[in-house]
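Subject: LysR family transcriptional regulator structure
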Amino acid sequence: MNHLNDMALFVEVARVRSFRRAAEALGIPNSTLSRRISELEKAIGLRLLHRTTRKIELTEAGQLYYARSKHIVDEARLVHEQLGEMLEQPGGILRVSLPVDFATLYLAPILVDFAGHYPGITFEFDLTPRRVDMVTEPFDVAIRMGKLEESGLIARLIGRHSRQLYASPGYIEASGKPATPEDLAAHECICMTRVSTWNLHQRINKVDVEVGVRGRFTLNSVGMIRTLAIKNQGIALLPEKIVADDLAAGRLMRVLPEWKGPDVSIYAVTETRLTPAKTQRFIEFLSSKLMET
């Protein structure tokens, strides 16, 4: 029995916590996969998985075996992929965690473009506002925006988004146009937090100001903030790439155009530097598109 092959099977089962899903990903019968894992447990002399009708959990031994074997399997897979890249394009399932608004409002055309370049790759995109656990959850890469916390993960800066102030023509007609950053205090501002401070920078004179703003709407969705701004509900600080179509169509207009907010950094986060070809190509492709402007 080839223990390295069985180790790879176990790693896939442990990643997805499902024999059925692992069997589908590996292209082997469920019964064969279950039998091979049982044989691996017998060879080791310890139970690695708790099996129930509803879910699979790792035993204490299984957690240790997964932590050690995952890196071995990933490194072996990486070597095989690198050797095979000269003959064929990268393939396999690419599992990506993406910020909801960023993906739907801006990234979708880029993702379609990438899929067209690499027909051998299939995709599982998880659009969620939460910070997924790259160690225990089965993701190849997570795209994250803003300041990163210390985590021990590998983070690569792949882009920056400039932020500007926007409002609808209807709001400006009804409420007037602010002439200075200080005037924002008298306006409805659509904010991420109830008590919000906007740090603005004037590029011409290189002046920085900090302005306290408030408004009736407080929310944590860039997409919803954009929609409320279009619906005449106030002034919003938004990434300019996300509102480019609205600006061109006249749904939004710039407010205080000589001032801008802090850039938003965009990162590709992986558990290890030993990423397979599909992940490397994806990160490189995103970086080339996001760094274009």
